What does this fold into?
Amino acid sequence: MRPFLKINLQIQGGYRMADIKYKRVILKLSGEALAGDKGFGINPPVLKDVAKELKEVHDLGVQIAIVVGGGNMWRGVTGAELGMERAQADYIGMLATIMNALSLQDALESIGVPTRVQTSIEMRQIAEPYIRRKAIRHLEKDRIVIFAGGTGSPYFSTDTTAALRAAEINADAILMGKNGVDGVYSADPNKVKDATKFDHLTHMDIIEKNLHVMDTTASSLSMDNHIPLVVFNLNTSGNIMKVVTGQEVGTTIEGD
It folds into this structure.
């Protein structure tokens, strides 16, 4: 059982700790979300905006862990399609997630938020190795923890990493911040004009309807461990706060 959380009566942006629905969360950030409109690389203004919003949620007393992707720099699947050996391509992708994690750490610490990066691939000069109990202790000490390097093994996505780490640290929910997409649709809303947006789904719906929210491994992990998933538009200011306070934002996926 998770240790008792101290009550924070401080008002932050009109909210109190009592308003919080999810007190410990995994935020899954796609690499594309950090690229913003540029589509590639790291967009510093976007990075700063994400950091500021995370600080508001953190200051309220929410324990935040982050899994960051690397698609803004490299995708293992793309590398494999171009002829590269798949495992090698995936390892390059893991390094991309570490670059994103270090950039996000710097943005957070520049505004006074204590942050630790833990990597599944050891890089002791720049980050801690992933240790479950140490990660939980950091959260209990009000530090944001960024999990980088995916699972440390090829063939697994950062979505699977998010589901795995959420189960390991007993997170209340996985928050999936998308780049310009405000939830789960029946089809790609950028390609199909009459695509239907879902407000609520079950994990089994995701699998049976073949909705490309997370890969099957990640969906199964979330379902088996009864971890809710909220998919929302990261580019809309205030959405992270709205999600943790239980407001209707994006698509909520829970149950089986």
Notes: Residues 86-109 form the longest helix (24 residues). The chain is about 35% helix and 15% strand. The domain at 19-253 is CATH 3.40.1160.10 (Carbamate kinase). Confidence is low (pLDDT under 50) at residues 1-10.
